[in-house]
Write a structure and sequence with these properties.
two-stranded antiparallel sheet, disordered C terminus, about 45% helix, 7 helices, DNA-binding, homodimer
Chain lengths: ~160, ~160
DNA sequence: ATAAATTTAGACTTTATTGTCTAAATCAAT
DNA sequence: ATTGATTTAGACAATAAAGTCTAAATTTAT
């Protein structure tokens, strides 16, 4: 697991990037996403529901259903996904776990950690998933390549 | 819990900082540490054993036993504690969980994350626990103050 | 209307982490 | 030697996170 996000959150970010990479197709079936990203189908289902409630994605039920981005890809940042899934507390709190650590009673690494947090916030806020997927040359090639070393052809979670 | 370290790791860092802050006293009883830091006694015991195996601390059994730093406080960095407890993988791997993300096949935030990682590495490597506890005006006052809002006097884990 | 495809819901299982409890081993002081 | 204080060991429990399974609800297409 990432040092930073829960696995649910990782999956959510991956799925939204995948949707962005396939625009303007839509909607995309959950099974397409879970197959492409090797994410357990029903697990991803719950994550997508969370993102739906938060407006990050829109779901369409029934035959020919699926998911699409909730708004323009340029208007969705990673932070929106993280907030929806891991909540607000992910960048609050002392990195060493001291309960009352703050600017007035800082823990030993408080100042250093603050700088790192700023960098991370920039990473999460400033780039939209539209930009992120476009930078990679668009489309879904980058995601496919990220799995090519492991399971070249096999589909799972069927 | 921290966004970054396991709770075990948080406790380990806190405990080592506490030892550094009380130098040159030694050894310090486990119960002193767990009381001061509100850490479950036997849980901390296992963490200290892990740190002992890694040479970060030295234990003394029996009456008048306790723990002391395994070497000069200037020679111990947070990274040493993290490596001992959370292992090597904590800063490896893709922050989005893509299994083959690397410089040649980067995920969308690979480059941005790399910069953040560098900042965090500096934080963890460059400052020794000696410096960190000294910067705070020495001694353990900073740690006491970090709990003063909660349980002013009560001792737990007895 | 019916059937097929899909999302939604919720119970359940598995696994990892965190925390608790009891007892044994070790050492210092008397 | 005995006692008391302490670390060490390991079984166990509680909680949270991750993953699986079955069935219901919804929608499109025929």
């Amino acid at each position: 697991m990432s040092v930073f996000f829960s696995r649910s959150c990782e999956y959510g970010i991956q799925a939204v990037l995948y949707l962005a990479s396939r625009e303007p197709e839509s909607p995309i079936h959950l099974r397409d996403i879970s197959n492409a990203l090797r994410i357990p189908h029903h697990f991803l289902s719950k994550i997508m529901q969370t993102l739906e409630r938060d407006g990050v994605v829109i779901s369409h039920k029934g035959a020919n259903g699926g998911f699409e981005l909730g708004r323009d890809a340029k208007e969705i940042s990673i932070i929106n996904i993280v907030r929806a899934i891991d909540g607000e507390a992910f960048l609050n709190g002392c990195v060493l776990g001291f309960p009352s650590c703050d600017d007035t009673a800082p823990c030993p690494v408080h100042t250093l950690w603050k700088k790192s947090k700023e960098n991370i916030s920039v990473m999460l806020e400033k780039s939209s998933v539209g930009e992120l997927s476009a930078e990679l040359g668009g489309k879904l090639e980058f995601i496919k390549s990220l799995y090519s070393h492991n399971n070249p052809t096999k589909e799972i979670n069927v």
